[in-house]
Design brief:
Elements (H helix, E strand, L loop, with lengths): L1 E6 L5 H14 L2 E6 L9 E3 L5 E3 L2 E2 L10 E4 L5 H6 L2 H12 L3 E5 L2 H6 L9 E2 L9 H5 L3 H4 L4 E2 L4 E4 L2 E4 L5 H13 L1 H10 L4
Parallel strand pairs: 1-2, 1-6, 2-5, 6-7, 7-11, 8-9
Antiparallel strand pairs: 3-4, 10-11
Length: 198
Amino acid sequence: MKVLVLLAEGFEEIEALTPVDYLRRAGAEVTLAAISGRSESSKKVTGSHKITVEADCRIADVNASEFDMVICPGGMPGSSNIAASAKAADVIRKINSKNGFVAAICAAPVVVLAPLGLLKEKKFTCYPGMENAIEQFTGSNWKELTSGASHSKDRIVQDGKTITAGGPGVAEEFALKLVEVLFGRDKAGELRKGIVAR
């Protein structure tokens, strides 16, 4: 299984790196793609808490057809920086259209997925209060782009191939859910036991 994690300046570190760690432990091939960095050629991206990560590649080099899942970490302005990238939008749309998994946590469901129309007819969750900012981040046609979307206060919501989660404190549960959907409950349970998760 191949997973793409999008990293943009200001990303929430725990929301990005916990899934990377857990998915790699489970056997996934995880690629970190830098959307914005110190320069156009740099693969180094600094998170919202000043932790700098060197990605595996730049977003410009990503071939969406290779991936089974894309993960959008939250954090601000990380989520806004993902949303501002036309290439990132194209990659997310392509993975979604080929029936791959689209996962987003914290601000990303509202800031990244809603403007792409990917919450339409979906049940979703996000960082508490962000559900009230859909119009702000989606624009004038927000009602059309999010028609039928239903916000839940659950920590994690899966609706088909779309998986959303609430925030930094949900990062481990989110990561284990992603392992479960890609590798099954037994593998997720095995990993949960191995890392001494609650």
